[in-house]
Amino acid sequence: MIRTLTLPSPAKLNLFLHIVGRRPDGYHELQTLFQFLDYGDDITFTLTPDQPGVRLAEPIAGVPDEENLIIRAAKALEARATDHLPGVTISIAKRLPMGGGLGGGSSNAATTLLGLNHLWQLGLSIDELAEMGLTLGADVPVFVRGHAALGEGVGEKLTPVDPPEDWFVVLKPDCDINTGKIFSEQGLTRNTPRITIAPAFEGDASRSRNDCEDVVRKLYPEVNESLEWLTQFGPARLTGTGACIFGRFPTESAARIIWESKPSGITGFVAKGVNISPLHKKLTELK
Fold this sequence. Notes:
The chain has 287 residues and is α+β, with helices and mostly antiparallel strands. It has helices spanning 69-80, 104-119, 126-134, 140-145, 179-184, 213-219, 221-230, 252-260, 278-286; strands at residues 4-22, 28-48, 54-56, 87-93, 149-153, 157-160, 167-172, 236-238, 245-249, 267-274. Strands 1, 2, 3, 4, 5, 6, 7, 8, 9 and 10 form a 10-stranded mixed β-sheet that branches. Helix 1 (69-80) packs parallel to helix 2 (104-119), helix 2 (104-119) crosses helix 3 (126-134) and helix 6 crosses helix 7. It is globular and about 55 Å long. The model has no long low-confidence stretch (mean pLDDT 92).
């Protein structure tokens, strides 16, 4: 049995995000296009046969263990086991900003589900893990399945797609956005017409926007300023409910030229869009 395993926990972008309706339970019906980035956190799982239970090597600042999706994912798996499992210590090299719209917490949960399913040799299928992931968050299933996808419903109904694998400049304005506040704003567009998969790749801005963007720009001047700056060099967009924004470029060199000229005080990174998750590529290498 492998004792230690380090796996990537990649970021995602919402290449577009349309709100097409509201459900009776108050949640919003979405259409969104998920693509992964070759950039993210790394999570290391170390089995501890002499020390039962699930623990983090170091707590994540501001996130109590009982709310941490890594711990919740590990305990959900633990509850499915029929045999005694060795304990595990989990450490994370955190690169993705919290609350940035990059899916960091959901990605961490998915990496934990897939990583511990492998380490503990539980033999659960991707479908079973995705179903378990949905109980942790609407974005977890796309990370579990590991393929770029058109997401519908609350984001859990996934149709695999292959958008162009371009390069992105991702910027994190200096603000924290409350997702609940954005979705409860009166001015939020909630009736965007549904689209089919093909138009999602046609590049028509009217068909590929983020319906949360106007509200976020009004409430968070830092996001508005960053978008105005990045839009000078081509179309730029909010991912999720933010605060991260991204611009798409055809080559790494083009993206890095823009990155080097960014305003001071803004953090972020340059990364390549990928349709197969780096997590799944790594797990395939282990087979």
